Structures are given as C-alpha cells and as structure tokens.
Amino acid sequence: MPEKTLNVNVGVLGHVDCGKTSLVAAMSSVLSTAALDKHPQSKERGITLDLGFSSFSVPMPEPLQHLPYDELQFTLVDCPGHASLIRTIIGGAQIIDMMVLVIDVTKGFQAQTAECLVVGEIAARSMVVALNKTDLLPEALRPKAVKKATKLIRETLAATKFAGAAVIPVAAKPTPSGISELQAWLVAAAVQQHADPAAAQAAAAAAARPFLFSIDHCFPLKGQGTILTGTVLQGSCQVNDTVELPALKLTKQVKSIQMFKRPVTSVTRGDRAALCVTQLNAKLLERGLAAAPGTVPTFAAAVAAVDKVRFYGGPVPSKGKYHMSIGHATVMAEATFFGLPDAPGSSQADALRLMIDALSKTSLHTQADAFDWSKQYLYQEELYGLEGRPITSSSSSSTVAAAGGAGAVGAACSSGQQQHFGPQWVLLKFDQPVTAPEDSVVIGARFDVDAAGEACRLAFYGRLTGSLAEGGPQQLRKLQVYKPKERQGLVSRIAPDATSAVCSGLFKKETDISIFQGARVVTGRGEWGSIEGRFGTSGKFKVQFDAPLWGVGEGQQQQRSAADNVLLLRYKRFVFDADKHSIRQ
Q1: Which residues of 306-330 are buried (b: 16+ CB within 10 A; e: fewer)?
Q2: Which of 58, 165, 337, 558 is the most exposed, having the fewest neighbouring CB atoms within 10 Å of its CB?
Q3: CA-derived radius of gyration, the chain
Q4: Are 178 and 169 in contact (CB under 8 A)?
Q5: pLDDT tens-digit series, residues 131-177
Q6: DSSP assignment of 331-398, as one string?
Q7: What is this structure's pTM?
Q8: Which CDD domains match (predicted)?
Q9: Cross-strand partners of 572
C-alpha cells in the first residue's frame, strides 16, 4: 500500500434530496467512520444530518509525478442539504479545496443551492456542477432538457467566482452514469491547482504556520483513548506532539495517527486524519479545533472585512443581530458596519474585481491582512453590495468646497446619484466569547427570518482581521468609526473690518457652545473661519474668518447674496468615544 498520499478535500453540496449521498457512494472506494448517512437519525429520516467522509484514490497523474507522493486521494465531504442544517455545511466548508455542486435536473436551482454556492465561493478554489438524476428524464427528451438546465445554470453562475464552470450530467443510481467523467474532472482540477504558483505558495505558507486541526467528530475507542477525526487546516503534527483543545483549555499528547484506517507518523496541511489522545472525555467535545498550544485566542468582539451576499434579498442593517458562523461554531452577534470615507472610492467594475480577488484569496487560505486601527472609518447604516454606498450630499459638497468647486467623488450611477465603492468592515460584538483563529472566515446569516429555507439566509461573509479580548468600552475606543454631522446657520452681521461676524442658527440658546470653540466653519462662498465663542444669550456666536469676506466694504455690502451668507459646520461624532459630547473635524 502506498505510504505517501496527496489528499484533496472535495465538498459535495446541494439542496436537500438532490442525490448528494448517492452520488458520493457511487464515487467512493473507502468509507470513514462517518460516511453515507451512518447517523441513526439520517437512516430514519432519509436525509443527511451530518458531515460524511469517504474517499477514492487514483495513481499520481503524470504532471504531478515530480511531487513526493505515491497516490492522489480525494476525500469527499458529503454536506447536509436541509435548510435547518446550513450551520453544518458552513462548518464543513472550511476544509474543502474544491467543490461539487449537485443540482437535481428535474428541479433546477433552489434556495439552498444558492446558499451552498455562497459557501463554495468562500471556501473552494474551483467547482464543477453535477447535474444529477438525469435518469429520471424521458430518454427522448433528455438531451434537450439537459441542455436547457445547463444554460440556466451557467446564466446563474455568470456573475459569480465560478463563471464558466463545467456542468456534467450524472446519475447515481440505479445504474451510475457520468461518474468517471466527474472523477476525471476532479483529477484535472487537482493537477491545475497544484500547477498554480499562487496556490503552491499559499500551501507552503500554510504548511509552515502553527498546527491547526478542524475536528468534526469525537468518540471513544475502547483500549485506545479518544479519537478526534478531522482535517489539518495548517501546519503539521507528529505522533507524541502536544496539542491544545482551545475551547476546553486542555492540552493532550497525540498517541497515534491514522489516515483512512492506515497508521501514519505525521500529517500536514490538507490531510484528513484521526488523532488519538488519552484521558479525554469524548462527551465534552463534538466539534471544534485542536491546535499548537497558545495559538488560538478567545475574544468577545472582533473586526472583519466583509462583503454582502449577492443572493440575499433584504437590507443588512447595522445594530442588527446575526447568526455568526465561525468554523463549526454559530453564535449571535451585534453588527456595526463601516467603510472608508467617501473620497477614496473606486468604480463598480473595480469593486466586483476586488470582491472576486478577495474570494480567491480566502479559498487559498492565505493569511488575512491585519486591520489598520490608526485610520478613521465612516459609520454605515447598512452593509452595501455591488450597488454601492450612496454618497451623502455633505460629503460631496464638502469635498467640492475644499477643492475649490472642482472634481467629483466616487462614481455616478445611471440615476445620477453618486456612489462610493470600496472595502467594508464590521465590528462584531458576540453574545458569548468565541474561540477561533484570528483570521477565521466568518459568515453572517438570519436563520430566524425564513426558517423554511425558501430564500437565501446568508447575508454577508468575510475574514476576521482583528480581535478584542473583552470588547468593552475601553478597548472599543481605539476603533475610530465616526458619523458625519452637519449644521447650517447664517452670517447675520459682518464687522466693518470684514474678518469677523456674528452668526446664528447653528445652536440653541441652551447649547454649551464651548464644545465647539475653535471648530472650523465655511460660508456658501467657501470662506473659512473659526468659532470664537458665544455672543449674547440667544444662541448667537462669533466667527473669526481667515481672510476678509467678499463683498463687504464701502459700496459692496449688497454684493453678498443669501446663499453667500449660509454658514456650514461639519464635524465628526465618534461612535465609541467615551465622551459623547466631544467632536472632531
């Protein structure tokens, strides 16, 4: 039996009852302890309830024979399709390299098909569509029906990362067909992935990082210990190494390792394996992580770079509660969205390209860019998709005034409304502390909105870029997210020297104007000045201008219009400032 195996993890996803498990059975030659619906309730209900693992192997293809392996193994991860089990699908997605999206040819694209596609875009580098149950079509109508279904699928995929993906007609039973073609596609895709320099570089970098193992099953084995089955996400592990179970705050020594019932001495990134440890109560851990000691933190809040899911129909508002899936865990969190200020926006085409690039980097499991805590960010009432964020009139006019009336910000849509396109982030305040790698993939969902699963419930996705251990006010203060504010008043009486004026309309008589002392203001003509302080008791105040106001002087008083005398005060209120009355400009 070959000693060295190159393993590729293939996620098999699709809507409930599309025939995934039957297809996996037709492709598999080796079954794990959790394969083909061995769960008792799976047998009882006739649907997949948990992740299933099986595999098939082929000799090393000629283009890969220079690698130090004897065979190419495909581990098939059979994911549940029922709407209520999407959390399990998301948990399984973090370990896959490529994906088979199974679609029932008699039903086409369904609600959970869209959710599976979203998960696949995040996790998988490449995808093939298995158009299943073609044997149910009348033989005479089969070619036409398959052609029509293929066309509709390709139209749906056109705006996704998997545009142009192969569609292979298959039938799992009673007489399997298309199976060899599907396996051949997987082999070709594996060759292509390993020939990709970016993928090779990412794999080498991940292999060099600290050990991280995704546990999907945990059970006792009499006379041996407790078995942790899962997939190596990064790094490597050898027999006798010490690993930490971060969720339990325990460390254990690895007694032995197996790969599909075959003893091995070590495992590395991408390997599907079973680790045997001793003196661990298997009931304490169903799913989770094993890691190099001290490398997986626990935190109460985090920042993630995110994008909106294109298939999600509703708004994604700030201050809303979302089901956040991080690895195998799903916890509730309050979300606060923010982005760059309006001026540095890009085009819609750039935004789409950047989104696809970000998905590709995520599926390569490259390390996420660290969050820049030194920058200031604009608070957003909601997360925006490819439609862009509307630019506020105050942002636009402020930029124009500062530039002397020239230039535009962002891009204009067909209706003439200016839009901002740029990166977006979210602050997640978890209802309970989360234990996860600091660059974990996150998926935000509203599972409570459509329990029947008739619509896509996945709202946004992204990568963690920074964490806050406690998430309290003291720590949140370093996150500089602001809301732009604007007040409009009038230049009421200009002094004879034209460099100062009494103004009104910005404040009520009870306002503490000292908060705004020194704040910069601008007239409708773009003339800048600073607030000096209160004038009288009615809310009026005095402004000292940088230069004499235009149109003031002997014979010029009538030259200033009402628009010229409009006075604007623009400032920022920082969402997480301890002093809610402080302002910054």
Answers
A1: bbbbbbbeeebebebebbbbbbbbb
A2: 558
A3: 30
A4: yes
A5: 999 999 999 999 999 999 999 999 999 888 999 999 999 998 888 99
A6: EEEEEEEEE--STT---HHHHHHHHHHHHHHHHTTPPPPPP-TTS-EEEESB---TT-EEPPHHHHHH
A7: 0.83
A8: eSelB_III, SelB_euk, SelB_II
A9: 484, 584
